[in-house]
């Protein structure tokens, strides 16, 4: 059952608020986990592996979750994801060693997958194609606002005690903060229940992952999304290390990361105007390439003001690439496989978030932390080039 006109605005507002709160939690907690990893004796290699493991469970389960959502279980998946956006934060706070912290990290990553797939799939399930770009823009704007709130909030709480950062106290604060998502999830229930489809009924219209990947335009869109998400994750995980090496405080690092997300907020507010003026594919390849150049320069230009400029430009570009690829893939398939293609896109993101940090963490032993930014920047340039080659296609 779809939402009635009187309730559609309320439930969608609840979904955006849920997205704001959840992503404030994810991004604030992830940078705190990086500092907690260092507190527990982790090195740059461990940071990379921790970042990779955050995406490991989502990589293995994304398509299954997408199929479940396509069968009408989006709100149930959203509820489970909400719970897994709260409890792992508390577990990270009490973690006595890196092993327990790893479990908390993986659980939080799975929670993010569940809330993301459910939230994204509810939009094409509830609105006509003509409204998808606007609605995805609102949803991803909520992501950016949440990131902008969460990062400085976590940093200020950690530094509030004076002296050395109080990372455990900040994690407990973020546990309480993340509990607010429960209220937002209740509001989303105003949408009403989508009729469930049995596995046998769904089997007739299900397309294999390989068939979905062969859809024209799917692979370039996924590559652009993969490169962006890997760059964002590596930046979140390794900027604290760059900060420590150059004498920057926790507050400074978190404010720099918040500047990146604030720039994404700005770009998502005007993405419709930019896409109409420049064309979606031209906008996508330009954003990917520009972000790649900025990311490569991060370990080279390490003064606070230069990092601020680089992160602001990169953040503006990141804000464009995600909703553009999200809208692209959601219109490439039939309704019975729509959450599946969104999940494949997310699985691609998670693959990049597992493989690239793992490779980068090993290379830091040889070449130092700066190689992480070189790798992620080069991938963004590659994605920009592949999209440019496909720039003759119409969306």
Automatic annotation (TrEMBL):
Pinpoint the Major facilitator superfamily (MFS) profile domain residues: 1-395
Q: What is its main location?
A: membrane
Membrane topology recorded in Swiss-Prot or TrEMBL? Multi-pass membrane protein
- Locate the transmembrane regions by residue number: 46-66, 73-94, 100-124, 136-158, 170-190, 221-241, 253-271, 283-301, 307-333, 354-383
Q: Which Pfam families match?
A: MFS_1
Q: Write out the entry's keywords from A to Z.
A: Membrane, Transmembrane, Transmembrane helix
Q: Which SUPFAM superfamilies match?
A: MFS general substrate transporter
Q: Which domain of life is it from?
A: Bacteria
Where is the protein localized? Cell membrane
Q: What is this protein called?
A: Major facilitator superfamily (MFS) profile domain-containing protein
- What is the taxonomic lineage of the source species? Bacteria, Bacillati, Actinomycetota, Actinomycetes, Micrococcales
